[in-house]
Design goal:
- By secondary structure, the chain is an alpha+beta fold.
- It has two domains: 142 residues, Thrombin, subunit H, CATH 2.40.10; 112 residues, predicted glycosyltransferase like domains (Thrombin, subunit H, Beta Barrel), CATH 2.40.10.220.
- The chain contains seven helices and 15 strands.
- Strand 2 and strand 3 form a beta hairpin.
- Helix 1 packs across helix 4 and helix 2 runs parallel beside helix 6.
- The longest helix is centred in the last third of the chain and has 58 residues.
Length: 327
């Protein structure tokens, strides 16, 4: 999991501190939140609760109406602690912490004919960095999915690692039939795939693209529709097909994975070109040095061979001369 700097945390807090996030099932999954470990604690005792929503400054929790906690609140209890627990990206470890809060209000909350209590709380101090990081990264991903909707990410090996995409080889279901394909580029609005087949039979089809991500491990499908195609030069058996996602089928965690690409500080295009030119020059220089070295070694070898041949000729001439003298 990427490390969040204090500068990034301050940015999250400054921009998003008052944005309230409702803990739906989708949000719970995206945050890796463990709802079974949500508790309210006071004076050494704790009671289970449901975290209905939270921001970086406040939260709303749901508790049973006849609990001992409600009795204490009605008696004038003003300060309580809420426990947040998140699953770690790897292994079975969990991230857990308490947030100190003060009571702001209590109201009835009805669900399926049952009455519970909705308790509004405000944090007594700045939220822990871990909570700011979790909520901030989710809100930023949601903002980026709208601002950068059509910005495409070419799935090079480096970019694939950056967004934690496990692999580019995957399966697309076209009219419910699974077909193997390769992910070429991706965005918040769609994806381009390489697939074998006849282009005319692949356009304007309802599809589902399967994605497999890591950190945290997640496999899911996103529904969409094929909208256009491109020919692949030199490959008559392959075609590039563009798929537009159905936005309502896009999970929140997908937006968070893609936002990792945009949240990382990247080199300016000009600097990337200079680095590429420098790398190419280094390769050229290295190649030239190797060629010069090879030429030098060949020259030395030839010189040695010439000297050896000359010595053999001199030796033969001397032997011939001595033979003539003896005769």
């Amino acid at each position: 999991m990427a490390y969040t700097t204090s500068q990034q945390l301050n940015k999250y807090y400054s921009l998003y501190k008052d944005i309230n996030i409702t803990f739906t099932n989708e949000v719970i999954a995206a945050l890796n939140f463990d709802p079974k470990q949500a508790f309210v604690r006071y004076d050494g005792e704790q009671w289970p609760c449901i975290i209905n929503s939270a921001s970086m400054r406040s939260a709303k929790i749901i508790c049973g109406k006849g609990t001992k906690l409600m009795e204490k609140l009605q008696e004038g209890l003003a300060t309580i602690n809420i426990r947040f627990t998140f699953f770690a990206s790897e292994g079975n470890d969990k991230l857990s912490f308490f947030v100190s809060t003060k009571l702001e209000g209590i109201s009835d909350y009805e669900v399926n004919g049952n009455t519970f209590m909705m308790i509004s709380l405000t944090y007594t101090q700045r939220a822990p960095d871990d909570l700011i990081d979790k909520l901030g990264s989710l809100i930023e991903a949601n903002v980026a999915s709208k601002k950068r909707r059509n910005e495409r990410i070419l799935l090079t090996q480096e970019n694939r690692r950056r967004i934690n995409l496990e692999k580019t080889e995957t399966v697309v279901f076209i009219d419910s039939i699974p077909r193997r394909c390769i992910l070429r580029d991706i965005s918040f609005s769609g994806v381009k795939i390489l697939i074998a087949g006849v282009a005319n039979f692949l356009i304007n089809k309802e599809v589902t693209v399967r994605f497999s991500f890591e950190d945290p491990r997640s496999v899911f499908g996103i529904k969409g529709r094929t909208v256009r195609y491109e020919r692949i030069e030199g490959r008559k058996d392959l075609v590039a097909v563009a798929i537009a996602f159905h936005e309502e089928s896009m999970p929140m965690i997908f937006k968070m994975y893609l936002n990792r690409y945009f949240s990382v500080v990247k080199k300016p295009a000009q600097q990337e070109e200079l680095d590429a030119e420098k790398e190419e020059n280094e390769k050229t220089e290295s190649s030239s040095e190797n060629n010069s070295k090879n030429k030098s070694e060949d020259g030395t070898k030839n010189e040695s061979e010439n000297k050896a041949n000359e010595a053999q000729v001199d030796s033969a001439e001397t032997a011939s001369s001595d033979g003539n003298k003896d005769g």
